[in-house]
Amino acid sequence: MTSIDLNADLGEGFGRWRLTEDEQLLSVVTSANVACGFHAGDAATMRRVCELAAERGVTIGAQVSYRDLAGFGRRAMDVPPAELAAEVAYQIGALEVFARSAGARVAYVKPHGALYNRVTHDEEQAGAVIDGVLLAGPALPVLGLPGSRLLTLAREAGLPAVPEAFADRAYTDEGALVPRGRDGAVVSDPEAVVRRSVGLARSGVVTAHSGARVRVRARSLCLHGDTPGAVELARQVRAELVAAGVRVEAFA
Fold first, then answer.
1. Distance of alpha carbon 190 from its chain centroid, rounded?
2. For 173-211, what is each residue's pLDDT tens digit?
């Protein structure tokens, strides 16, 4: 049976401000990318999400980012490699404290936003992220875009490289994500998102922004938690995957 992991970005609030419906989404997804305080999240939020995830048997991942709270981690930045490696390790370590206190552990690492996009092609920044993961300790799996420099360097470093796909993001003909600033970069039609999710899981193919069919082999499918109606959409995606004979389970 074909299987797929469902991951979502969670804990993306700060103080009294809440963005994602963490508790509801944790009843749907199998992996939680928890913000570690650099683009969103704070200590109390990280602890709460880890406790909820552990209660529901959801795998916990560290969503690491550039230090950019004001820009939600979506602004391009140039960070020296040694500094970036230290900051990646710092974020993983901070989340590990709360994961362990909840009886779980940090089981993988996923970059966020501008860092995610940068490490698809930038050798130096991708290498710094991998150095940070290694500095944090165990051989944690790294979640990223298929064919990215990040996943290539992860494999070379002996780390499990886990490719992921996005049902609600437009793709280029080369299999990259269309930048968020461009028209049509985000797929907003719920029916289209559900249809794309099943297609990605079953055949590993998605329709690109140009209309071309692009092969995207992925072990995990990302569902964005900060979009309107995210919880109901996530439920629909999971239900349709199961109905299509896809086993939904965590990769780690």
1. 20
2. 999 999 888 888 999 899 999 999 999 999 999 999 999
Alpha carbon distance 234, 31 (integer Å): 13
Tokens of 161: 């490289």
CA 136 to mean position of chain CA atoms = 19
The token pair at 160 is 């499990």
SS3 119: coil
pLDDT in tens, 116-138: 999 999 999 999 999 999 999 88
pLDDT surpassing 90 at residue 89: yes
Band of pLDDT at residue 42, cut at 50, 70 and 90: very high
Domains of the chain listed by start with CATH number: 3-248 (3.20.20.370)
Determine the Cα–Cα distance for residues 53 and 48; give it in Å rounded to an integer.
9
End-to-end CA distance of the chain: 18
Which residues 6+ apart lie within 8 Å of 167 measured at CB? 187, 193, 194, 196, 197, 200, 221, 222, 223, 237
For residue 127, give both structure tokens.
Answer: 């290498």
Buried b (16+ CB within 10 A) or exposed e, 117-144: bbbbebeebbbbbbbbbbebeeebbbbb
Rounded CA gap, 64 and 57, in Å? Answer: 22
Contacts of 216 by beta carbon, 8 Å cutoff, 6+ apart:
146, 165, 171, 175, 200, 204, 205, 206
92 Cβ contact list (under 8 Å, min separation 6):
36, 62, 64, 106, 109, 132, 133, 136, 140
From the number of C-beta atoms within 10 Å of its C-beta (0-12, 13-18, 19+), residue 71 rates as middle
State residue 104's pLDDT score.
98
